[in-house]
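PROTEIN DESIGN WORKSHEET
SECTION A - STRUCTURE
LENGTH: 269
TOKENS:
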């Protein structure tokens, strides 16, 4: 795993936050919004709370559950609880501190287990998968633009150049309840997973993302740097955050789920 976040060329501070923990097989990326500095408060709370709650739940999971075959129901409930906790803290903080009023954050998080990944997301931060030559967006944006595309009012290409890209229809912390979307995917050795904020995906089309990851997938820190450099070269109009995960080999549940993923993913900062 490797990740990097960058302010970009236009914004004066960074409201994105990332966290990745190879020993848990866990990735978290958030893109905050709100008044001055409130966005970075929201994204910081989200990444910290989700990481802490996921770690606590994983460490408390009974051994018989960890070796019960499909862990999807367990991972599903863990992710929902972690995001609900983050939502509650962000919402409460916004209610209690006037400078944080209205803050919220997008969120995309993934947990790897038993040759699978569970991905939960809220908003328009994304997860992609590169498998061989196939590059696929695994999340679907919760945004006004995506609703326009789904309704046939805009083509995906028109949406890339629309003036209202940043209008999300879901976010963490803007209300007492958050609606999280979850999906599970089978993982194969050789897969590369990209988690990113819209500061990357708005600047570079999927074809460019795929090409750059293919070129640099053997050096994930360099791949992160190149993706951010290219997004800045295209204007860097927003904060840019990237986390990349390369799966080195299978990790069936018999291997000891959540016990040091270092050999499966490789680690780099």
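SECTION B - SEQUENCE
RESIDUE ASSIGNMENT:
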């Amino acid at each position: 795993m490797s990740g990097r976040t960058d302010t970009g060329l236009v914004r004066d501070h960074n409201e994105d936050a990332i966290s990745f923990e190879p020993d848990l097989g866990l990735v978290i990326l958030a893109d905050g919004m709100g008044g001055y500095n409130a966005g970075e408060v929201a994204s910081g709370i989200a990444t910290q709370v989700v990481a802490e709650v996921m770690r606590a739940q994983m460490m408390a999971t009974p051994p018989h559950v960890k070796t019960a075959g499909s862990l999807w129901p367990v991972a599903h409930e863990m992710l929902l609880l972690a995001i609900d906790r983050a939502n509650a803290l962000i919402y409460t903080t916004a209610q209690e501190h006037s400078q944080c009023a209205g803050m919220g954050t997008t969120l995309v998080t993934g947990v790897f287990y038993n040759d699978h990944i569970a991905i939960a997301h809220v908003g328009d931060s994304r997860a992609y998968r590169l498998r061989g030559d196939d590059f696929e967006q695994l999340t679907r944006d919760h945004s006004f633009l995506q609703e326009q595309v789904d309704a046939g009012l805009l083509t995906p290409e028109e949406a890339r150049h629309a003036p209202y890209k940043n209008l999300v229809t879901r976010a963490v912390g803007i209300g007492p309840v958050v609606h999280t979307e979850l999906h599970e995917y089978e993982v194969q050795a050789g897969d590369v997973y990209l988690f990113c904020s819209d500061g990357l995906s708005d600047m570079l089309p999927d074809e460019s993302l795929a090409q750059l990851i293919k070129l640099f997938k053997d050096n994930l820190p360099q791949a992160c740097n190149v993706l951010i450099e290219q997004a800045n070269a295209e204007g860097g109009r927003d904060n840019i955050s990237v986390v990349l995960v390369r799966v080195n080999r299978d990790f069936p549940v018999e291997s000891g789920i959540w016990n040091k993923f270092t050999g499966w993913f490789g680690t780099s900062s």
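SECTION C - NOTES
The longest helix spans residues 72-96.
Strands lie at 2-6, 16-21, 26-33, 104-113, 116-122, 126-131, 134-137, 181-186, 192-196, 240-246.
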